């Protein structure tokens, strides 16, 4: 069952941490700043709860959604216009075969040593969701990072506002003061980390690139420059088209992790050659 994926120490830590951050943000920082009985306090609590709920929902989708495995019936295209003999075609097929699971790999698929199978359009294996991030759950992962970043920044703002609202004695060291400092360091550090991660995946999405392809591309670009050539990522078909391929054609559904009707079989992808 897919629910077995939740039997992971990493996922348990994430859920406990999210619950802790939610509780102290609402019932300690926000209540101490505006009071939950006030209209402003209730509004902030409602907005933060909504963002946190979307974050948790995206997290569940990431854990439960299969990233996409290679169908057992998959065979690569054996057509090779430059090599007509059988030996050349056989050599080309061997290059498309995974040397770990002995199956043929579609373009952009990679073998995950943790999942022990090839994953379609694999980005990376994430221990925090106990799953690979691949073709079918990359959008959910992107929305997870987005909502987590917004929630952590919102929590930081509420914490700082609550701290500024208090009349502190800057000489005396108290447990509540230490608590504010410790949680402030954690939440602000989390905001910076998630913000950096969000920026990274925005960059990858705009260029229609995975993390694996980025590092492969750096080497390919270096080799091309040595030969006096220009390198361009094969699947970069323009910023808006790239975003649409990942998040969908409808902008109103870009932040919905379950709006994935645009996701195809993951065995082939449009290339820059088709759009040139």
TrEMBL record:
Transmembrane stretches, start-end: 7-30, 42-64, 144-164, 176-200
Compartment(s): Endomembrane system
The keyword Acyltransferase appears for this protein: yes
Catalytic activity: L-cysteinyl-[protein] + hexadecanoyl-CoA = S-hexadecanoyl-L-cysteinyl-[protein] + CoA
Keywords: Acyltransferase, Membrane, Transferase, Transmembrane, Transmembrane helix
UniProt keyword annotation of Transferase present: yes
Positions of the Palmitoyltransferase DHHC domain: 95-216
Alphabetized GO MF terms: protein-cysteine S-palmitoyltransferase activity
Membrane topology annotation: Multi-pass membrane protein
UniProt EC number: 2.3.1.225
GO CC, any one term: endomembrane system
Domain observations: The DHHC domain is required for palmitoyltransferase activity.
Family membership: Belongs to the DHHC palmitoyltransferase family.
Name by which UniProt lists this protein: S-acyltransferase
Species in which this protein is naturally found: Nicotiana sylvestris (Wood tobacco)
Taxonomic classification: Eukaryota, Viridiplantae, Streptophyta, Embryophyta, Tracheophyta
């Amino acid at each position: 069952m897919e629910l077995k994926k939740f039997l992971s120490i990493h996922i348990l830590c994430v859920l406990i941490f999210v619950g802790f951050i939610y509780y102290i943000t609402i019932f300690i920082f926000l209540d101490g700043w505006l009071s939950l009985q006030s209209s402003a306090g209730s509004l902030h609590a409602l907005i933060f709860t909504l963002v946190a709920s979307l974050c948790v929902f995206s997290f569940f989708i990431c854990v439960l959604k299969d990233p996409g495995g290679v169908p057992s019936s998959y065979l690569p295209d054996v057509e090779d216009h430059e090599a007509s003999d059988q030996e050349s075609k056989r050599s080309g097929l061997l290059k498309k075969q995974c040397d770990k699971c002995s199956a043929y790999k579609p373009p952009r698929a990679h073998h995950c040593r943790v999942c022990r199978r090839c994953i379609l359009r694999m980005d990376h294996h994430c221990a925090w969701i106990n799953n690979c991030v691949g073709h079918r759950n990359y959008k959910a992962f992107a929305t997870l990072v987005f909502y987590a970043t917004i929630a952590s920044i919102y929590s930081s703002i509420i914490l700082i506002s609550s701290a500024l609202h208090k009349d502190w004695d800057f000489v005396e060291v108290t447990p509540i003061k230490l608590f504010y400092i410790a949680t402030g360091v954690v939440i602000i550090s989390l905001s910076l980390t998630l913000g950096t991660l969000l920026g990274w995946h925005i960059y990858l999405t705009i260029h229609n690139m995975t993390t694996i392809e980025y590092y492969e591309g750096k080497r390919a670009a270096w080799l091309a420059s040595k030969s006096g050539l220009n390198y361009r990522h094969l699947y970069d078909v323009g910023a808006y088209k790239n975003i649409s391929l990942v998040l969908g054609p409808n902008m109103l559904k870009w932040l919905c992790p379950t709006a994935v009707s645009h996701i195809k079989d993951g065995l082939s992808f449009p290339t820059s050659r088709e759009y040139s």
